[in-house]
Specification:
Elements lengths: L1 H13 L1 H6 L14 H12 L3 E7 L2 E6 H17 L6 E5 L4 H11 L4 E4 L6 H11 L3 E4 L4 H9 L6 E4 L3 H13 L15 E6 L9 E5 H14 L5 E4 L6 H12 L3 E4 L6 H8 L3 E4 L1 H17 L3 H16 L5 H4 L1 H5 L7 E4 L6 H9 L3 E7 L6 E4 L12 E2 L4 E5 L7 E6 L6 E2 L3 H7 E2 L2 E10 L5 E6 L4 E2 L5 E2 L1 H11 L3 E9 L2 E8 L7 H13 L10 E5 L16
Parallel strand pairs: 1-10, 3-4, 3-5, 5-6, 9-10, 9-11, 11-12, 12-13, 25-26
Antiparallel strand pairs: 1-2, 7-8, 8-18, 13-14, 14-15, 16-17, 17-20, 19-20, 20-21, 22-23, 24-25
Helix pairs in contact: 3-4, 4-5, 4-8, 9-10
């Protein structure tokens, strides 16, 4: 891994002019595949004994090569086939692990459908998803054995309950069958348009819907992402694998010969950064913000914050002359992230551009993007060395986007067309029809494209406030601005009441005891930075945080 780190650093330094000039450049070349089975087979053929997955098991570091991964997928798939698991819907729940990843690929590459379950959901919600998806096999980690017990006690008609701690024995069984000539799974031909996965939306405003994704949609999304962005050497997998964003990053790493280091618990992220020393990490904005604040909190405690600001000014002045010394000047900052971290892929929620620019000051590039589960999920992303701060990047190759019914400022609903778009919502034809305009999937998100093709997000269509004067107000934009300009506002939801704009806020009174008394004055100052029709007319102070989904998105209807 050390030699690979030297290689990627030298590569980036050689192409550093791209980063400093911020100009577009040719797409990366990627070999096409048709389905997830071909993806695993081709990766094993091309990359052989190169490590594909690295993780800790029983306090020992385990490396799984690309060749071994394919062998394990074939063996587990064969063992499941031998158990009579054919054309089945298989639900999986558990923390991030090699066994979770192995289960996903073994299930879909043997003609079954995977149903990833959000491990943060209460048992009664999981019961609903199991019933709605028609899943009749449940694979679970030992940490979620209580979920399996709950389903058994509820009389759920599952054909099999499979604890992940039995997977090693299933691999032995599968390998034995393979040695004896059982080739049904190895020789199985995937229909690339076949249903591969049912992923349930988080349901911020209603009942979760089952998004049906095909083999073609998932692999094409991974290929399109790989043509747009390059993530070499090693990646720390932090995002939960049941999220489409988390799983697609695994597919991208397999395409790009990247070693995936698996983080099994969020409390171990910093320890794993130090242990595995990755080049890349895929995160949601909350982590980015937390990491950035930690940098400055540490500097302030050590009374080095003024020195750090001075170094940033010097470094940025040097960058303008073509000299990049960030890896040397900010070595102590980079060391807290393992020392090799160069790229953060970020998505899932809005990210203030101050964090993007702040990390870039230290030599870490944030590739912020936009996606939605129904699109497998990535739609756009800033490239390694071509980006637009404040945007969610360029539309990835192979995908078409149009802005439907734009207003005078170019804002309209973002619609997507291409192979990455879902097959529809499972057992919900009405919702599927409502989600499409001919072949265009209506994301429900409002945004616009600039002259260079960068996509900007304004908010959700269903949340738009239409005032009596005909003006459109996007509450997410105001919420984002409030959180940025008034630091003690921890959470906020903006809505309309009698044609007036109201901001409901949850304040950080623990760290700022007199913030309540300053709020009205700060809101007046905030209003001066906004167009008059966007002014906050009233504030409501909450005593508790807003209720949220398991992905930490505020449930606006509540």
């Amino acid at each position: 891994m050390v030699w690979e780190s030297i290689y990627v650093i030298s590569k980036v330094l050689c192409t550093g002019g791209m980063g400093m000039k911020n100009q577009n450049y040719p797409l990366y070349e990627v070999e096409p595949v048709n389905d997830l089975k071909e993806l695993v087979d081709l990766a094993a053929e091309k990359y052989g004994d190169h490590p594909a997955f690295t993780f800790e098991r029983d306090k020992e570091i385990v490396h799984i090569s690309y060749r071994q991964f394919k062998s394990d997928v074939d063996a587990l798939g064969t063992a499941l086939f031998n158990m009579g698991i054919k054309d089945a819907k298989v639900a999986v729940i558990g923390e991030n692990s090699y066994e979770w990843i192995l289960t996903y690929f073994a299930v879909v590459n043997s003609g079954n459908v995977i149903v990833p379950l959000d491990r943060e959901l209460p048992p009664e919600d999981i019961e609903y998803l199991l019933t709605d998806s028609d899943a009749n096999i449940l694979v679970f980690s030992s940490n979620y054995a209580d979920v399996a017990d709950y389903m058994k006690n509820r009389g759920m008609m599952m054909r099999h309950y499979i604890n992940m701690n039995t997977i090693l024995s299933l691999l032995e069984k599968g390998n034995s069958l393979l040695r004896n000539g059982e080739k049904s799974i190895v020789d199985y031909k995937i229909n690339d348009m076949a249903l591969a996965a049912i992923l349930y939306t988080s349901g911020t405003t209603g009942m979760a819907k089952g998004v049906m994704l095909s083999h073609q949609g998932i692999v094409n999304n991974a290929i399109d992402c790989s043509r747009n962005n390059e993530l070499l050497c090693s990646n720390l997998q932090v995002l939960p694998l049941h999220h489409s964003f988390g799983f697609i990053s695994i597919c991208v790493m397999l395409i790009q010969k990247t070693e995936t280091c698996i983080n099994s618990s969020l409390k171990n992220v910093l320890a794993d950064l130090d242990k595995f020393k990755p080049i890349n990490i895929v995160l949601v904005p909350l982590f980015v913000e937390t990491f950035y604040k930690k940098i400055w909190d540490t500097a302030k405690k050590q009374q080095k914050d003024k020195q750090l600001r001075m170094l940033i000014k010097i470094s940025n002045a040097m960058l303008k002359t073509g000299i990049d010394m960030r890896r040397q000047l900010f070595k102590s900052v980079l060391r807290s992230f393992g020392g090799n971290l160069r790229f953060i892929v970020c998505g899932g929620a809005p990210l203030d551009e101050k964090y993007v620019m702040g990390f870039r000051d230290f030599g870490i590039y944030i590739m912020n993007g936009y996606g939605i589960t129904e699109c497998s999920p990535i739609v756009s992303a800033n490239r390694n060395y071509y980006y637009r701060d404040g945007s969610v990047g360029l539309i990835i190759p192979g995908v078409d986007v149009k802005i439907m019914e734009p207003d005078e400022s170019g804002h309209g609903e973002i619609c997507v067309n291409g192979d990455i778009v879902m097959l529809g919502y499972f057992k919900n034809e009405q919702a599927t029809r409502e989600a499409f305009d001919d072949e265009w999937f209506k994301t429900g998100d409002i945004g616009y494209l600039d002259d260079d093709g960068f996509l900007f997000i304004s908010g959700r269509k269903k949340n738009v406030i239409i005032l009596s004067n005909g003006k459109n107000v996007y509450p997410e934009e105001l919420e984002f601005a409030l959180l940025n300009q008034i630091p003690y506002i921890k959470e906020t939801v903006v809505y309309a009441e009698s044609n007036l704009i109201v901001a409901e806020v949850f304040l950080d009174t623990e760290n700022d005891s007199d913030c309540v008394s300053r709020l009205d004055g700060d809101i007046l100052q905030f209003n001066k930075t906004q167009a008059p029709y966007k002014n906050i007319s009233r504030t409501v102070i909450r005593e508790t945080e807003f209720p949220k989904t398991t992905t930490q998105k505020i449930k606006r209807q509540k």
